[in-house]
Amino acid sequence: MTLFFAMFLFSLTMSISPGPVNMVIISSGANHGFIRTLPFVSGATIGFTLLLIIMGFGLYATIDKHPLFFKYLNVAGSAFIIYVGYKIASSQPELSLTKSEAPGFIQGFLLQWLNPKAWIACASGVVLFSEPSNNAPLIVFITIYFLVCYLSLAAWAVLGKNISALLNSIGRIRAFNLCMGGTLIITASYMLLAQ
Questions:
Q1: Is 88 among the domain residues?
Q2: Distances 35 to 28, 74, 84, 141 between C-alpha atoms, Å
Q3: What is the number of alpha carbons within 13 Å of residue 180 lying toward its C-beta?
Q4: pLDDT exceeds 80 at position 64
Q5: Is the pLDDT assigned to residue 74 strictly greater than 50?
Q6: What are the residues whose beta carbons fall under 8 Å from the beta carbon of 42, sequence distance 6 or more?
Q7: What is the pLDDT averaged over residues 180-189?
Q8: Within-domain flag for 11
Q9: Rounded to two decimals, what is the model's pTM?
Q10: Is residue 149 pLDDT above 50, yes or no?
């Protein structure tokens, strides 16, 4: 029971804490609503879970032998996150939000694979909750993480939708988009400089 709680707590902490994916979700929830944000949430959850499965069943051992991998991933992932932040910050503020396009399943999936936070969460989780001679703990961890991740990311979409009530003018929408995009750019820049 203690192991299940530890798995749950780890999954919740990593999923609910702010990061690039969460910032895109809150922005999409505010600009497009909960329902139109769900494909992105689904893509991000499935992308992360697939990364966790691949990492848990072999990739971690390979990556562990090549420490430069995380450095290159950090550069590529940060560049992609800066691009996403720019797209959010420069998006047109419209009171009629049906004209703009919500981020979809593929964007959510790809953002997780280029997100250094996701790779670190996967590597840490695999180290903590896998056993070389028994796959059962890893399978339980992956299942718990999938459920917790989906619910956590959906909660960010609900938060974004509720914030949309405050975004009742073009100026407020522009300020919100600049804030969310700027946060992503600052986060990605920090990740680049911190390595």
A1: yes
A2: 10, 31, 21, 28
A3: 26
A4: no
A5: yes
A6: 105, 108, 150
A7: 78
A8: no
A9: 0.77
A10: yes
Decide if 88 contacts 177 (C-beta within 8 A).
yes
Q: Is 92 helix (H, G, I), strand (E, B) or coil?
A: coil
How many residues does this entry show for the chain? 195
Residue 115 structural domain = 20-194
Residue given tokens 């966790």 in the structure block: 52
| DSSP-based three-state secondary structure for 54 | helix
Query: What is the rounded distance in angstroms from the CA atom of residue 128 to the CA atom of residue 10?
Result: 10
How many whole angstroms separate alpha carbon 152 and alpha carbon 8? 12
Q: Which residues, other chains included, contact 40 with Cβ-Cβ below 8 Å and sequence gap of 6+? A: 24, 25, 28, 102, 103, 104, 105, 107, 108
Tokens of 141: 């961890």
| Angle at the Cα of 67 from the Cα atoms of 64 and 70, rounded to 5 degrees | 100
Asked if pLDDT for residue 169 goes beyond 70, the answer is yes
Q: How far is CA 89 from CA 22, 31, 186, 192, in A?
A: 15, 12, 12, 20
- Residue 106 placed within a domain: yes
The 3-state DSSP composition of the chain as helix, strand, coil percent (nearest 5) reads 85, 0, 15
Contacts for 153 with CB less than 8 Å, ≥ 6 apart: 15, 21, 22, 25, 41, 44, 45
- Based on the structure, what is the number of domains in the chain? 1
| Res 95 pLDDT > 60 | no
* pLDDT at position 46: 97
Rounded distance between C-alpha atoms, residue 19 and residue 78, angstroms: 12
User: Does 6 reside within a domain?
Assistant: no
